[in-house]
Design goal:
Low-confidence stretches of chain A: 530-534
Largest interface: A-B, 77 and 72 residues
Strand order of the largest sheet of chain A: 3-2-1-4-5-6
Distance between the termini of chain B: 23 Å
Radius of gyration of chain A: 35 Å
Mean pLDDT of chain A: 85
Helix content of chain B: 25-40%
Strand content of chain A: 5-15%
Shape of chain B: globular
Largest sheet of chain A: 6 strands, parallel
Mean pLDDT of chain B: 84
Oligomer: heterodimer
Structural class of chain A: alpha/beta
Largest sheet of chain B: 6 strands, parallel
Number of helices of chain B: 9
Order of helices and strands of chain B: EHEHEHEHEHEHHEHEEEH
Shape of chain A: elongated
């Protein structure tokens, strides 16, 4: 009967959308490193831990008052809830029941309740005895005022910071990665301390005229000396004792150097990871950013333009030299292979990125990056460089929205320059917005007052703007002159005064940046009336 | 546009793309290089070729620099080669128009001081183009497919001849958009120097003979405009 109830609950939870949603919410809050909620939660918990420890320090010389009493209760309640939630999040109990039930059905064996309960308890115990869970528990226990001795363990709350701070976590990982070297050093240190303390005890005991009263003094002296601290409360009086001291001081220097070199080399190894963590943390804050794959000459120019426009971006670069250059310039960079799905995912292709730009010198790589990006995010804008004209089609097939061919683009500008250098420079100046004169677009949105207006009614000259044309896919305009087909739409150059604007039409304007911004503002605010534009 | 004799130094991706954009009927194009394979490829495309050593002034003279070559493209892959060629060509012909590519941006200044009129950095151009495509895809597409593409929409410069009806007029008063279906982009007012002043600026420019108007529009309209101001000019004469 109990078994059937358990199986029913398990299947109910498996199919329950509310249960899944709730579990996902708490997963994002407590565990998901990519979640913004976890970031805020961690900050709150760090503050709570620090406050509770400060309270402990404050209470050393001051009588606890009602506020600190309630605060302590609040902190412990939060810790207990957090502990229970983490215990719940660890593994899926209902899946263990379902898996076991389906196995028994398949093998036609009886469903043993104690067996499935054992699996569940084992799974939960594995979590309870994990180091982080033990720290959580130790942070809760000392609040039992009756066991005063446990108060000292309140300091364990500080260890909870490991959970919430990535940097502390990395420091622990650095130490863990050099476990073998540190064990060897500790063993060597123990050996030296043992020999030195025994020797000093033999030479410097009280009957021999020394200051060492018992073995603990000898060990204390050895550790103080080997660490090069040397308080001087116990000093060798005999020649033998002084020889031991000299030997121990020299050994101490060696041990310290060895320890320092282990830590430095461990951090050196982890430095790349530390930098990358910083990049990911920064990326978390970004919305609408661009992923630039490659920091070669083309990539560097794009970065320059983006910085000028204060556009957020992240660079993915595999080459050491280029990656170092990017870091020197303070650019957010992921040192990795842009064709890898993981790298693109970490870069945020599914979260916040609006475009991927492939700029590598290798078309094969550009095709691969394009394909990976399109697969990961079907809606993202992909612009790729094609070093060979014949690869343009492949890039488009792979999913690129735009393909730019460096030699063709440069050749176009060179050819345009012949015979009309001024016109060519003017065009470049406009496109690059070099003299604050730019071409920009304004879309006629539904409900906008531009909708239904005739070009002749809009006094662009008075607004110090020049209307170059209108882009539209609306067939209503087809009767107008000067139409050029441009990518599934038509561009109507210098439209006549009776050209009536429709929703979705795009005005192409030439003007100074502030004139265009002013016009855009007026259109966007939708406060303008026909008369105000006229 | 008057027919010109053009020499292209170096046969590579860029020079190949350039030849596709140049009007071979309107200009006489000659490829010059010391590399036989490159020249053979150019010859296969139907171009005039000449195997020369660009370091030799005699070879440069032989090709017509200092005589009838109007424009050279220095499209060697090494910056030092392009600087040397620019320097040699400028010494031989003061009025020669020299357009050079640059691989390393640091070499641009050297090329300009060697006498180049225009520097082309394919990587910078490509980077800017990509960014332009990201930032303003509609405009980038229009310019690429109309002004640079197959459609009959161009940006052109028109010099005002002496005695033209446009003399002493303010550029914006001429209403080019209504009379010729052209858009006035800017004016080079020779009184103020060689800089282009955009038509949408606050300053009103009084036009004189020799000033240059930069206009945008279909080629037939540009032709008609040019013809009209020239006819006006002959009437006065």
């Amino acid at each position: 009967m109990l078994s059937r109830l358990l199986i029913y609950i398990a299947y109910f939870l498996k199919t329950s959308a509310t249960y899944k949603r709730t579990k996902k919410f708490f997963y994002n809050l407590l565990e998901n490193p990519q979640s913004r909620r976890k970031y805020y939660f961690d900050i709150s918990m760090i503050s709570l831990v620090m406050l509770s420890v400060f309270l402990l320090i404050y209470e050393v010389k001051t009588e606890a008052n009602q506020v600190s009493f309630w605060f302590e209760h609040f902190v412990v309640t939060v810790f207990i809830i957090e502990y229970i939630l983490r215990l719940w999040l660890h593994g899926n109990m209902h899946m263990i029941v379902i898996d076991y039930y389906e196995k028994t059905k398949y093998l036609n064996i009886p469903f043993r309740l104690h067996s499935v309960l054992f699996d569940i308890v084992s799974m939960k115990l594995a979590y309870i005895f994990s180091p982080v869970a033990l720290i959580d528990l130790l942070a809760i226990f000392p609040s039992y005022r009756s066991i005063r001795i446990l108060r000292i363990f309140l300091i364990f709350r500080l260890f909870k910071l490991f959970r919430y701070s990535k940097s502390i976590k990395i420091f622990a990982e650095v130490l863990a990665s050099k476990r073998f070297e540190l064990y060897t050093l500790a063993l060597f240190l123990a050996f030296i301390v043992f020999i030195a303390s025994t020797a000093i005890y033999l030479f410097e005991n009280e009957p021999s005229g020394g200051q060492i009263q018992h073995l603990f003094d000898a060990i204390y002296w050895a550790i103080v000396t080997i660490s090069t601290v040397g308080y001087g409360d116990i000093t060798p009086q005999t020649t033998g004792g002084r020889f031991i001291t000299l030997a121990l001081i020299l050994t101490g220097l060696g041990v310290l150097s060895f320890f320092t070199s282990i830590i430095v080399s461990a951090f050196g190894d982890k430095m790349l990871e530390l930098r990358e963590n910083r990049t990911y943390a920064e990326l978390e804050k970004f919305r609408n950013f661009v992923i630039i794959c490659g920091f070669g000459r083309v990539g560097q120019e794009i970065v320059l333009q983006m910085r000028k426009d204060r556009q957020n971006f992240v660079v993915i670069e595999n080459d050491d030299k280029n990656a170092t250059l990017a870091r020197k310039q303070g650019i957010l960079i992921i040192h990795g292979d842009a064709s890898s799905n993981d790298t693109l995912r970490y870069a945020g292709i599914k979260r916040g990125a609006v475009a991927v730009i492939c700029t590598t010198e290798d078309d094969v790589k550009n095709v691969y990056i394009t394909l990976s990006s399109r697969r990961l995010n079907p809606k993202i804008m992909i612009i790729s460089r094609a070093n060979h004209k014949h690869n343009e089609k492949k890039l488009l097939q792979a999913g690129a929205d735009h393909v730019i061919h460096p030699y063709e683009t440069a050749a176009l500008i060179a050819a345009e320059y012949i015979g009309q250098p001024v016109a060519s420079e003017a065009l470049q100046g406009i496109l690059m917005e070099e003299k604050n004169i730019l071409l920009d677009t304004v879309t006629v949105e539904s409900g906008s007052l531009l909708h239904g207006m005739q070009i002749g009614d809009l006094n662009f000259a008075r607004m110090k703007l020049s209307l170059v044309g209108v882009i539209s896919s609306n067939s209503i305009h087809k009767k107008h002159r000067n139409q050029y087909k441009v990518h599934k739409q038509h561009f109507y150059f210098n439209p006549e005064n009776h050209f009536t604007l429709q929703t979705g039409d795009i005005l192409v304007l030439l003007g100074r940046n502030f004139s265009i911004d002013h016009f855009k503002d007026r259109v966007q605010k939708s406060l303008l009336t026909l008369d105000t534009i006229k | 546009m008057k027919a010109r004799r053009i020499a292209i130094f170096g046969y590579n991706h860029l020079s190949f793309e350039l030849t596709k954009r140049l009007n071979r009927d309107a200009h006489e194009i000659i490829f010059a290089d010391s590399d036989k394979d490159g020249l053979a490829s150019a010859a296969a495309e139907g171009f005039n070729i000449m195997q020369i050593d660009y370091r030799s002034d005699d070879d440069l003279k032989k090709i017509g620099i200092g005589k009838d070559i109007d424009l050279i493209f220095c499209f060697f892959t090494e910056d030092c080669e392009n600087v040397f060629l620019t320097l040699s060509a400028r010494a031989l012909a003061e009025d020669l128009e020299i357009i050079s590519i640059v691989e390393n941006p640091d070499a641009a200044e050297k090329l300009l001081s060697a006498g180049a009129n225009k520097i082309i950095n394919p990587y910078t151009i490509c980077g800017r183009k990509i960014y332009e495509r990201y930032k303003k895809p509609d405009i980038s597409r229009i310019i690429e497919q109309t002004v640079f593409g197959r459609h009959d929409l161009h940006i052109a410069e028109v010099e005002i001849p002496k005695g033209s009806v446009l003399e002493n007029m303010v550029a914006s008063d001429y209403k080019l958009d209504e009379k010729y279906n052209l858009i006035l982009i800017g004016v080079v007012d020779k009184e103020l120097g060689e800089d282009l002043h955009f038509a949408i600026g606050i300053q009103q420019h009084k036009l004189d003979a020799g000033d240059i108007l930069v206009v945008m529009g279909p080629s037939r309209e540009i032709r008609a405009f040019k013809q009209d101001i020239e006819e006006n000019h002959s009437d006065v004469i």
